Amino acid sequence: MATVITAGNATNGLSLSADNTGSFDFKTGSGAGISAMTISSSQVVSIPGNLTVVGTLTATGGVTGALVSATPVASTSGTSITFTGLPSTTKRITVMFTGVSHNGSTAFNDQFIIQLGAGSITTSGYVSTCVTTAATTGLLLTNSVSGAVTFSGVWTIALIGSNTWSQSGNISGNGSCQYSAGTIALGGALDRVRITTVGGTDTFDAGTINILYE
């Protein structure tokens, strides 16, 4: 338990329920309230909702955000995999491939790409390069790809500001490592990430894809 302080409201007045654990639980809302902030006996502060700083926030011990893992998706069917519902507070996304392949060939339209979106997927305006190949329809992940090869890799996509995102990462497969980087300016706050191919017609047939966001 903890010493619980519940804010006064239309249902109840300000209440205090004390114990000797050395921790605090601050509750707001109606009725019994819900936890808005907790302070543990070791001085760890937890805020379940969003934190808005009006003045200056100084943290001598550092500030860490919640790193959230989406649900891994088997990349064994379909022409694209989309992760939706990312919060507007997202500042960084990590896209991960393990043993991913599709039924395409080695043509440019068969290269893997990441597309971002704000309400809907953005399919143009990207400035992206992988080794010596460039793309404008997505963040290019591969310079060459074959349906007979599985690929694994990790890419980081970070918010620069004003809904502009920058990406870099590496992918391995077919005995080589391919590096990529790119950027895209969205029309609003990012809320979705899609993995597909340049042409959008190749079908995934092996592997797993997942993302982390924070």
Could you name the key traits of this structure?
214 residues; mainly beta; 2 domains; 18 strands
The number of distinct helices, counting runs of at least 4 residues, comes to 0
Give the CA-based shape.
elongated
Low-confidence regions: none
Order of helices and strands: EEEEEEEEEEEEEEEEEE
- Mean pLDDT metric: 90
The whole-angstrom Rg is 23 Å
Largest sheet: 9 strands, antiparallel
How many DSSP E strands?
18
Terminus-to-terminus distance: 29 Å
* Global structural class: mainly beta
The helix content is: under 10%
Overall tally of domains: 2
Q: Strand fraction band?
A: over 45%
Molecular structure report:
The protein is mainly beta. The protein folds into 2 domains: 3-46, no CATH class; 68-213. It contains no helices and 18 strands. The protein has strands spanning 3-6, 15-17, 24-28, 34-39, 45-46, 68-69, 73-74, 81-84, 92-102, 112-117, 127-130, 133-135, 139-140, 151-161, 164-173, 176-185, 192-197, 204-213. Strands 6, 7, 9, 11, 12, 14, 15, 16 and 18 form a 9-stranded antiparallel sheet that branches. Strands 2-1-3-4-5 form a 5-stranded mixed sheet, with no helix packed on it. The chain is elongated. The model has no long low-confidence stretch (mean pLDDT 90).
